[in-house]
Write a structure and sequence with these properties.
The chain has about 300 residues and is mostly helical. The chain contains 13 helices and two strands, in the order ααααααααααααββα.
Length: about 300
């Protein structure tokens, strides 16, 4: 499971490495993932018929997932990987806030307060780094969309095999983006549709977008999904959820390692001033995630207490 989460953490790194704009990048990612998944389903003979109502829901989820990825990669392009992942980590707060609205349940005051704590953290980051304003906004939109399509996914997750759902969601998302892309090109005629193809030499191979698109789709999506599914056979969904919460942590550490983003975020003025806004904001967001996680853990801990005899 941790290897799967680590691979998911690499998606931000690859998003910065690929030169394509966010909508085109996601168009290629969903297309390649759908093709790879179709090959696996055909090879393993795992095709399953989907009901008409559920197919409509999968199309909706695929569209939301595509919009989520576009927002996430736009956040990376407009800010950086760390900012995008810090904002994305608020999804664990948005989910319990969105669930009662979508499923018509009861909204808990504690979850509202935790959501407000996370929003204050994002505001502090924005206040001290307003030049990343659009990137922060895109990251928050990505987190909100992530929470929404996760809730819809849960409604039909038990009906169909995960690989089948992933194929139809990727195909639907690709179809939706294919419809919207011409409109985006009308307003952004300078948007490139073709990946950068640098020569495969020792000095320039890493600038080849096609390589990273294949790695993003095959390793960070298809392979990571397979690893997660294998792990879920022996892990509870609760343990898996706690592991997935480490994705932003892995991603930020990788961004520090590959792109030295710690110099951009933790220090200002060429390293002479500590960026109090980013550190304070990130701390509040992480605190809200930790508190939300503790709220999930506490009933489990209470249930594990030994029963004392008289």
């Amino acid at each position: 499971m941790h290897l799967a989460v680590l691979l998911w953490g690499f998606t931000g790194i690859l998003g910065r490495a690929i030169s394509l704009d966010a909508p085109v990048l996601v168009w290629y990612r969903m297309l390649l993932t759908a093709v790879f998944m179709a090959a696996i389903l055909t090879w393993r003979k795992q095709w399953v018929r989907i009901g008409r109502d559920d197919m409509r829901k999968l199309i909706l989820i695929g569209g939301l997932m595509g919009a989520h990825w576009i927002s996430f990669y736009a956040s990376i392009k407009l800010a950086n990987v760390s900012i995008a992942l810090v904002c994305l980590s608020t999804a664990s707060i948005f989910t319990p806030l969105s669930d009662p609205i979508i499923n018509k349940g009861k909204l808990e005051v504690k979850e509202v307060l935790l959501g407000m704590l996370a929003i204050v953290g994002v505001y502090l980051i924005y206040q001290f780094q307003q030049f990343y304003a659009w990137g922060i906004l895109a990251g928050i939109v990505a987190a909100l969309l992530s929470s929404v399509f996760t809730i819809y996914n849960k409604q039909i997750a038990d009906k169909y095999p995960p690989r089948t759902m992933v194929f139809y969601e990727m195909s639907a998302g690709w179809g939706v983006i294919s419809i919207v892309l011409p409109i985006l090109l009308y307003f952004r005629p300078d948007m490139s549709l073709l990946p950068q193809t640098a020569p495969l030499t020792a000095d320039s191979w890493y600038k080849n977008d096609i390589i990273w698109l294949v790695v993003l789709s095959l390793c960070c999506t298809v392979w990571a999904q397979s690893l997660a599914l294998s792990a879920l056979r022996v892990l509870s969904s609760f343990t898996a959820t706690l592991s997935v919460n480490l994705e932003p942590v892995y991603g930020i550490l990788l961004a520090f390692f590959f792109y030295n983003e710690n110099r951009e975020l933790i220090f200002l003025d060429g390293g002479r001033t500590v960026n109090v806004g980013f550190l304070s904001g990130m701390s509040l967001i992480l605190l809200s995630v930790v508190l939300q996680t503790f709220r999930l853990i506490r009933p489990r801990i209470a249930g594990m207490r030994p029963v004392r005899g008289s």
